[in-house]
Structures are given as structure tokens and as C-alpha cells.
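FIELD: query
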Amino acid sequence: MAEETLYDVLGLPRDATPEEIRHSYRDMARRLHPDHNVNLGETELFIGVQEAFEVLSDPDRKKNYDLGLPPEPLMIPPISVQITYSRNSLARMSEPQLFYAMVELRVHADAEHPPTSPINLCLVLDCSTSMQGVRLDTVKSTAIDLVRQLQSEDILSIVKFSDRAEVIVPAGSRADRRSVETRIQVLQAGGGTEILQGLALGFEEIRRYCSSNRISHIILITDGRTYGDEEACIRLADQASSYGISISALGIGSQWNDKFLDEMVSRTGGNCKYVSRAEDIRRFILEKINGFEHSFAENATYTFSTPENVFLNYAFRLHPDTSPLVTGSPLVLGSIPRDSNHNLLLEFLANDVPPKADHLTLCKGRLTYEVPSSTKKRKFVHRLDIATMITDEFDLEPPPPNLMQAMSRLTLYRMQERAREDIGDGNMRDATRRLQNLATHLLAQGQRDLARSV
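FIELD: result
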């Protein structure tokens, strides 16, 4: 294996811009700083990041360092990227034009499969009054199943919250399994719903064992709305993302704020799922754990910039978990599975295409992800630019079938969003009509269970 360079330390390609160098340093320094992180080996990583930044942020020192670097080794990344476009070209015109790109990430068939990383998991459980009965009973039995199947090197913590929060099982607790199960069994419901209370305490627990050789993930389970602390929860999600901690949420029933939870978890690469039946709680949690075990790469992000006349309107993860993404840079993609694609749909709006241009770069960026090894995660970085030709004629060819299907799923999600906005405005008649149309579309696609839920 080639010797690690200062660019490797910061997770950057050799042609990284000064802004990319500053951004990567700030992100890694915040995550690895000794004041907040006492995990074994992380202090040495922090010192290495500082030393790399001191050299690469100084133009003269960077130039001398680059001159001494050996030629970059030719290496095929373990993950291939395929981009499918909605059109072959954009037309030379001043009017706005929509353009779609579907990015498919797939592990190469001959890529060496990494060992499974141990899990650092925190369950943040809503124990407010509305969870009383079968909902809380199902959560408790699922948590006990989880305790029984985790491996010895895995870390589990459990936090309960209502209008206050309490650690039920501390991270790294060496209490015997029966004692942990007893603590879960005696959980009782009562009080209101303040998600920030539970999320903040869960973050503190999981951060204690957050390290480069573990998958750190928070699962939030709630059936109610939180009031007044949404912005603070989103800021906390951004902080968790900077540590490589992802958050997923399970919404039970119909009273929770799905738009807020969607935005919060998407900032970390997690996903939010709605369940109408208590028995689906167990399936969601166990599927999430199974997904960790079948992950090839973790903490995948796409850092990008667009020209002044191009806007990224929408980013939508199609697989493995269907979820909208916050459209700012970086896009936090989450994990990449071993045996299936990670698919992403991007919607661009191009304004005033230059009359003399023959091509247009819609966005320029880099894809970053980490692959576990026997000692630590190895970081991979490669360029990922999305561009198209410019022609005098408007392209009338229909999009490829797989992209049409992806655009259809995005349309259905937007129908749901518009219905949600109507409900928020008190316009129940239009909301009902939109949801009826959505259910009809889902039935036509064979999605009977989802149509029934709608």
C-alpha cells in the first residue's frame, strides 16, 4: 500500500482547492479535538490533521511538498459511479431548464469485502403518555431482542425521554445482560414530548465511544410532535454528522412532525420511516441493524459547488433508504451496501445557458467515503462532476426508463409534501384530494401496503 500523504490525512484529492482544504480541516478538527474526544488513538489523529493543514494551507510549503510527492498511484476505486441523464444536452436559451441526473454507486464485483465494523448504537425512546400500552411494550421487547443479539465488541446505550430525559443503559455498561433487560422492562410512559431532551442525552452517550473503527448510529423512536426545539434538534444533527454519527427516526401513528424529522435525519445520512402498526417497530430496528452488517462503505458524502446560473433544486436518495436530502453541500449520503446500489436523484435548474458555450458543468465536486479495514477505516476520495453538452436544438428524446421511474418516485413524494402543506394551512379538502391521487398512483405501481397507509 502506498504511503499516506497529507492529502490522505485530510481526505482530499491532490488537486484540492484552498477552500476544500480549510473545510476538511475544520470538519476533522472539530470531530477529533481532545477536549471532546478521548478515544484511544484519536489524539494522534488530531495532531496529524493539524500538521497536514499547516503545510497544505501555506502556498509555499504546499508547493514544495507537492514537488516532493511521488506520482499518484493508478488505483481503481472500490466503488464505481454511473450517471444517467434525463437529456443528452441542454438547449442554448435564456429560459430556465430542468435537468435530472441519477447517480448510481455500486461496489466493484472484485473489490475485497471489508470486515464488519462493530456498532456503537443508542436507542432514544419516547416514553411520553401517548406511548403507553402496546407501542411501548413492542419497543421494550425489541430492545431486549437487540441486547441479546449484539456482539461482545458492540456498544449499546438506551435513553428514555418525555419532557425530561434519563439514561437507562449507559454506553459501555458492563452490567450483565439480565440487569440490562430488567431496566428495559420497567420502563413506563408518562409526560409530554421534548425530543431535544432525549436526543442531546443520546448524543452525549454515543459520543463517548465514537471512533474511526465503529459505526455510530442513533435510532429515535417517537409518536408525538416536539414544540419549540426543532431548530436546536437540527443543529444537534449537524453536530452529530461532523462526528460521523448518523441518526434515523421511526415515527409511530399520525401525530409526529414528519417534515421536521425528515430534515433532521437527512443531515446525517439517516432515514425517517412512518409505521402505522406497533408490530412494524421491531422490523424497522432489526432491518437497520442488518443494514449495518451488510455495509461496505460508511460516511459517504458528496461535496460540491454549482455555477451561478445553476441551482440544485432537489436531492433524493432512492436506495437503500428512500429519503429526501438537504440540498446544501455536502450531501450526506450515509452508507453504501455491499450487494446493491446506492442511488441518488438530483434535480438541477439551469438558467440563461451561455449562447457560445458548448458544454455546461452543472456541479463540480468530490465523493468521499470510508471503507473499514482490520486496523482502521481507509478514506477514499475521487472527483465527481456532472456536466452536459449544449446544443442549438431542444432534446426531445424521452429519458431512459430507469430515470423515468426515479422521477416518478420523486413526483409521488412531492405530492405527499403538497398534501402536508395543505394540512398545515387547514385546507383539508385539497389535502384529501392529493392523498387520494397519491394512493391511486401507488396502487398502479403495485405498492399496495404503502397505498393503504396513504
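FIELD: remark
The chain has a mean pLDDT of 83.
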